[in-house]
Structure formats: C-alpha cells, structure tokens
Automatic annotation (TrEMBL):
Gene3D superfamilies: N-(1-d-carboxylethyl)-l-norvaline Dehydrogenase, domain 2, NAD(P)-binding Rossmann-like Domain. It is an enzyme of class 1 (oxidoreductase). This is 2-hydroxy-3-oxopropionate reductase. NCBIfam families: tartro_sem_red. It comes from the Bacteria. Residues 169-287 form the 3-hydroxyisobutyrate dehydrogenase-like NAD-binding domain. Its EC number is 1.1.1.60. It comes from Streptomyces cavourensis. It holds the Pfam family NAD_binding_11. Keywords: NAD, Oxidoreductase. Residues 7-166 form the 6-phosphogluconate dehydrogenase NADP-binding domain. The keyword Transmembrane helix does not apply. InterPro entries: 6-PGluconate_DH-like_C_sf, 6PGD_dom2, 6PGDH_NADP-bd, HIBADH-like_NADP-bd, HIBADH-related, NAD(P)-bd_dom_sf, Tartro_sem_red.
Amino acid sequence: MSNNLPKVAWIGLGIMGSPMSENLIKAGYSVTGYTLEQDKIDRLVAAGGTGASSIADAVRDADVVITMVPASPQVEAIAYGPDGILENAKRGALLVDMSSITPQTSVDLAKNAAEKGIRVLDAPVSGGEAGAIEAVLSIMVGGEQADFDAAKPLLEALGKTIVLCGPHGSGQTVKAANQLIVAVNIQACAEAVVFLEKSGVDLTAALDVLNGGLAGSTVLTRKKDNFLKRDFAPGFRIDLHHKDMGIVTDAARNVGAALPVGAVVAQLVASLRAQGDGGLDHSALLRSVERLSGSQV
C-alpha cells in the first residue's frame, strides 16, 4: 500500500458509505471507519479497512475525514461537541461531508471548522446505491478551489462527474435541485406505468421504447425493474427523499423560486411516508399512484 496517499477516516457506513469506503480501499487508501452498527464496521475491516471505537478514535490521525450520514442533525451530532470531529481531528485536516443536508448547515460547518484550522467541502452525491457500488457517482462540491483540487484524486475513486459548483453550501444547493428533478421524474414514470397497465399494454415493451426516446432518462433506466417487478427494496428510501424535498422547497422559498410541480410531488412523497412506505425505495411513488387510481396496494 503506497502510503504517500492521505490517511482517511470514514464516518457513516450505510447503503452509500459502505461501498464508497470500500472503493477507496481498492484505490489504495488507508481507511479507518466508524459507524453506529458494529456489523458495518466489521464489513469495512473485512474489506481491508480499520475499525474505530469512536469518532475521536477514527479521526485522530486522519488527513481527510469523510462523512456520509442521513441528514443535518446527524452531521451536527458527529461534527460538534467534545467527542465530535472538530474537537478531535488535527489542524489542517480536510473534512469532506458527502451527506445531503441543508445548504445552511454546510455553510455553518465550514465556518466553525475554520476556527479549528480544519478545511471543509460539502460534496453530496447522486447516483444511488448502484452508482456508489460502481464508483460512477456524480459529486457536486461546494468550497474553496484549493481544497477541491486536494480532494479531487480521492473523489475520483468514488465518482465519475466531479464538479466544484461554488462556495460552501453550493454542492448542497445543486443536490437539492437534483432531488427535485429525480422525484418529479419518478412520479411521471409512475403515472405512465399505471396508465399503461390499465390500458392493457405490454409494460416491458412500452418502457423499453419510451426509454429509447426523449422520455428516456437515467431514472427510468435505473428504476425500470423496480416498476416491472414491484421491487421496492431501498436503494434510496422515501424517508430520505421526504427530507430532501423539505430542503429544496425551503431553500427555494428562501431565494424566491417557485416550485409548483415540486411542491405537489413533495406532498405525494409525504403522503407515501404517512401511509407507512417510508422505508421503501423512492420508486415506490408508484404505490401512491396506484392507490389514487383505485388499485389495492
């Protein structure tokens, strides 16, 4: 293992964090990981990483700290306080937060970290579980050019499209726009699926030909089998998309941008969650269209 590479601490080994951290190990990085579930730490160790007993233990010697947790409260919980990243990482370390959180949380984190001599990038991702496993994620980054340049080789082990979008928080703003487009796209696909099925058309054939034309999309390519098989095992949970629709509607209101269709889809995501489907993949928006169309779900 060539140890001129920066030493990495990875906090948060969920659906996205586990395969991403493993891709860094495959690229030759030394990765020390911490997460709440011991079996996820064991998985990292089996892949060639090192397990840590706490956040402080994980970040102490790290050159780069990468975080991948569900939402703003979790980012704040791992970053702040006596046991958090800012108190325990070394001066000059680079903190790359890959979680999807509010732009303001990222701005505040960067400001607080700067007081400790820690540099920060917000670097949320798009591409879901499959993109994480295949290392083809799209990574939208906010922060300083120099820090982006330093992080880029590492990010290239995780994704394919890696773009600095502007100052701190910009990555989160672009991610929020991403989640808006994805949710509206899934909803449109779901409506088409129910319409096609009720019309008695061969769904597999219909989705194939639609995906070859202007209606085609990465969403349809990735979610076609979910629709066809009604397989809603989560790549990306409705609960998390619900959180993201809250971020985008709130951020849009703050800047004076209207999201008329986004607001409707946000309500459909919220209603799906209220019906107990929060743990399912976001392609389960199909279930809410089926319910509205009188089908037993």
